[in-house]
Amino acid sequence: SKLEVKNGTVVCSNMANDKGGNVKVGMANYGTLTLTDVDFQSGDYVLYTINNRGALTLSGTTKVESGKAGSKIAITNDPYNYYYTNFDASLTIDSESVSVGKVQLERYGNSQNKDAKVVLNISAGAIGEIVEDGKTVVSVQSNITGGIFKNAPTKYVSDEYTVITNADGTYTVSEKKVAQIGETTYTSLKKAIEAAKDGETVKLLKDVVLDSAVIADKSMTLDLNGKKISLSES
After folding, report:
1. Could you report the per-residue pLDDT of 27-36, keeping only the tens digit for each?
2. Nearest alpha carbon to residue 122 among 101, 87, 148, 150
3. N or C terminus of the chain with fewer C-beta within 10 Å?
4. pTM for the whole structure
């Protein structure tokens, strides 16, 4: 099923239930859910603002507040599901105006979905931090290519991207700029040389450590730009 919620505010309960217990989850997603320009607020007794067991996309100016009790989780990305087996739980954020508190990756799994994954598709937005439940039954597929984080998401960033420390103590994920041709940048010297046409100049933007040979089988110029190329010792 697909559902889009947009243009307004969602408030989780601010009161304990009649038996005195806690309101655990503000919203649970088992299908495809998109929140667009939604202010998702959490009450005093909420443990998990959103329990995501499907495909969740946050867009526009959506803000998902962390719960104010217990684990204080904004989104629990959880593929644990007995009814929809092997269904990946994915979180997609691609808007700079999206804001999210703590995101917890649930990796405990079960016999029905041991081949499922927790998927992160984050290219923008402000995210407090990403934490895990301490298990490793299901895998994490991380596609973090951007965004600003309160805690460095280094564990979830591929080799082609880097985590930069900002002046205010936050962290930004951005593509590595290793070399460039004209105004186009590349994440590795190898990619730049492969892309270069005859007569073009590849300009090095940072020191590079190569773990294998890079072959330039064309007429071109390599501008070291004061940087250093070295070979890995391994």
Report:
1. 999 899 999 9
2. 148
3. C
4. 0.82
